[in-house]
Amino acid sequence: MQYKPKSEFMDVMIQRGFLADCTDYQALDDAFSSGVVPGYIGFDATAESLHVGSLIQIMMLRWLQKTGNKPIVLMGGGTTKVGDPSFRADERPLLGPEQIERNIQGIKQVFASYISFGEGSTDALLLNNAEWLDNLNYLDFLRDIGRHFSVNRMLAFESVKSRLDREQSLSFLEFNYMILQAYDFLELNRRYGCVLQMGGSDQWGNIVNGIDLTRRVLDHEIFGLTSPLLTTSDGKKMGKSQDGAVWLNASMKSPYEFWQFWRNTTDSDTGRFLKLYTELPLDECERLGALGGAEINEAKVTLANEVTAMLHGVDAAIAAEATAREVFERGGLGDDLPSVDLTKDEITEGISIVQLFVRAGLVSSGKEAKRLIADKGARVNDELVEDSSQTLTNTDIDQPLKLSAGKKRHAVVRVIG
Q1: Residue 155 lies in a domain
Q2: In the 3-class helix/strand/coil scheme, how is 181-228 assigned residue by residue?
Q3: Enclosing domain of residue 391
Q4: Which of 287, 306, 328 is the last residue of a domain?
């Protein structure tokens, strides 16, 4: 990137690694230099929480506000009913309105940790595109909006082309998604003066469609900016861990487990993630990321503390670090470890070690638990489990047990009642 921006926001995007592409660098930079820029990112309500894969977009909204601009969080109450087909091999499961609303309520919880909402010029807005999509008249929409879209051009977008090239079905319902997202940008510009849409680079085609539609209908200049699709240095998609998605809601992934995900960052990703997911000065991110040997582990602790404190609060980060040090350095039971409570009645006749690992959330199935044991990866109170048919009773669990799956994932089992 040779372009040298004038505005603070564009400088942050470039220097910290957020920027993959932009529709017009110079004109957008001029807009940021001239006043408050309202910009939005859309989040479809496909689950009750966003996961770490969405955190780069949330940080972009945070930086938008920190640099004196207005973030708009758009909940996809309408578009979730269709489902984004971008780069997917199959159609998303269709969700009913009640589930979509539950998901929206769950997702909303996260944003207050990152941006401030209110009525001021740079206060964030939280909107739902169901407000304008749910009551569209189909014939009017086809006539007024659909006529601006070329099917030939839509078929040429990589997100659609890759699906068709693999001879995988693309339903007419899904094909409409890009039109609806484009219409979102038009409505946000018309209603709220929004001039910027941001998103991952897989949204480039959808963003460009919105810009083109708004220019055709309203003759307004608006912009698109995308972030890279992040993978870790070992090629894994960002947002996934060994035991599933890394959710942002504490009810779905505890602060300790969230902290541990970041602590387990690979050495080569540490500096990059410090720039993207924390607000530490760039020179400090580079210094920490360049550490080697055992010192890089303290850089990872800094990363975990900073990211966890931003989402869950400083106290949660401190507690998570204390638990990790207790578990890993002293071999003890940390207060913040994920736990499972069993009643005495449940284990009067015994509970299998396999079921115990499943109940603790360290494995997703009995088959996976047996494989973990066979691979010498399961431990109880730091002792290797060698027999997958082992059964534990009240006398075996008279005190809390620490279960370990490999070296980095732990849980506590307690008997209550």
Answers
A1: yes
A2: HHHHHHHHHHHHCCCEEEEEHHHHHHHHHHHHHHHHHHCCCCEEEEEC
A3: 339-416
A4: 328
d(CA 241, CA 52): 10
Structure tokens, 399: 């005190």
CB atoms within 10 A of CB 197: 30
Q: How confident is the model at residue 242 (pLDDT cuts 50, 70, 90)?
A: low
Does 122 share its domain with 176? yes
Amino acid at 304: A
CA-to-CA dists, residue 189 to 31, 254, 257, angstroms? 15, 38, 40
Distance, CA of 384 to CA of 368 (rounded, Å): 16
DSSP 287-325: HHHT--TTHHHHHHHHHHHHHHHHHH-HHHHHHHHHHHH
CB neighbourhood size of 60 (10 A): 24
Task: Identify the CATH number of the domain in which residue 349 sits.
Answer: 3.10.290.10
CB 380 within 8 A of CB 411: no
CA end-to-end distance (rounded Å), the chain: 62
Q: Are residues 109 and 189 in the same domain?
A: yes
Question: What residue has token string 């008249």?
Answer: 137
Residues 6+ apart with CB under 8 A from 215: 221, 222
The residue type at 282: L
If you average pLDDT over every residue of the chain, what do you get? 86
Q: Are strands 339-343 and 383-384 parallel, antiparallel or unpaired?
A: unpaired
Residues 112-150 pLDDT 10s: 999 999 999 999 999 999 999 999 998 998 899 989 888
CA distance 114 to 344: 43
In a domain, 334, yes or no: no
User: What is the value of pTM for the model shown?
Assistant: 0.79
Q: What is the pLDDT of residues 343-362, one digit of tens each?
A: 766 666 677 888 887 877 77
Burial of 24 (0-12, 13-18, 19+ CB in 10 A): middle
